Amino acid sequence: MMVFTGNIALYSIILCSLIVHEMGHLLAAKAVNLQLKSCVIMPYGGEIKLRQEGTYLQRLIIALGGPCATLIGMASCMLLPPLLAAPFFKVQFYLLCLNLLPFLPLDGGKIICYLLLTLFPKAKIYELFLSLSLCFFTIIAILAFIMLPKSIPVLLLSILLWINLVGEWKYRKYRIAYEKIVLNRLT
After folding, report:
1. What does the buried/exposed string (b/e) look like for 7-30 if buried means 16 or more CB atoms within 10 Å of the residue's CB?
2. In terms of C-beta distances under 8 Å and separation of at least 24 residues, what long-range contacts does 2-11 make, across chains too?
3. I need a surface site. Which of 34, 45, 101, 136 has the fewest CB within 10 A?
4. 121 has a pLDDT exceeding 80
5. Are 133 and 109 in contact (CB under 8 A)?
6. What pTM was estimated for this model as a whole?
7. What torsion, rounded to 10 degrees, do the Cα atoms 152, 5, 17, 109 define?
């Protein structure tokens, strides 16, 4: 949308912010000895895939890596020229606030979900988080649709996140069964 309206500078700042954020996830994955399969910047943010699943604690650390990198990016704004520092800080701040919402597939949802799963490894927790997240983004999409045309970016973002969640929902039983086998909890 920003490319079509000619706001290339803002798009560049957002892209740089996403790269900083994803680098945090990648460094965290390296710190917990998990190998990267792919890293893609999607229209709704970044998405990394690992070669192996890892434990809930490892995934929690990886989920925390992005917000930590965003905070470092915000702190680094003091080193930038004022003309660039203000918009970069603003984008980083909005990215952090959005990404810490407690819904999957956002980092806030992953942090809470993996923290709970680390403490109470029950498959229903993951399914509950998926259900709540699907409901949340469905409501946001409906509200954004009602408020068109001012809410086009919110509508597009919520639809893309909703599509991501539907994909996760379809494979939740396989993921839960796999995790039970890996964690030796198959009864």
Report:
1. eeeeeebbeebbebbbbbbbebbe
2. 9/87, 10/87, 10/91
3. 101
4. no
5. yes
6. 0.83
7. 10
